[in-house]
Hints:
Layout: H1 3-24, H2 27-30, H3 36-59, H4 63-86, H5 96-120
Helix pairs in contact: 1-3, 1-4, 1-5, 3-4, 4-5
Amino acid sequence: MNIITIFYIINTTLLLLHEIESAFQKEWELLKLPGKITGFLFFHIPIILLLLYGLVKTLDGSLLGLIFGILAGVGGLMPFIIHKIFFKNDTFFNLLISNSIIYLNAIFGIILIILCVRFII
């Protein structure tokens, strides 16, 4: 297993943990998304499929795997950008575990992006 795959697994695990909490926190209300829990779950089907496919592609070390790594890294930054910058709210995602997941996801996302870009260049 290569270093990019390891960071991809850590990053996507943190991202999926955040999404589990997002469902618990009813994130669709915070972000005013349509469809409530049903829309939220349907929205995540293609995301989860792409994350799993990206894992397979990182294992083979292909250019497509590196591109998926960059996209997953950006995805790891999104909880931080959304919840700590644009939709900062004192009642959502402020537990120690919530903040730990969000900040670690951002850190591992940045590392994943850097690693993938380094291998592309």
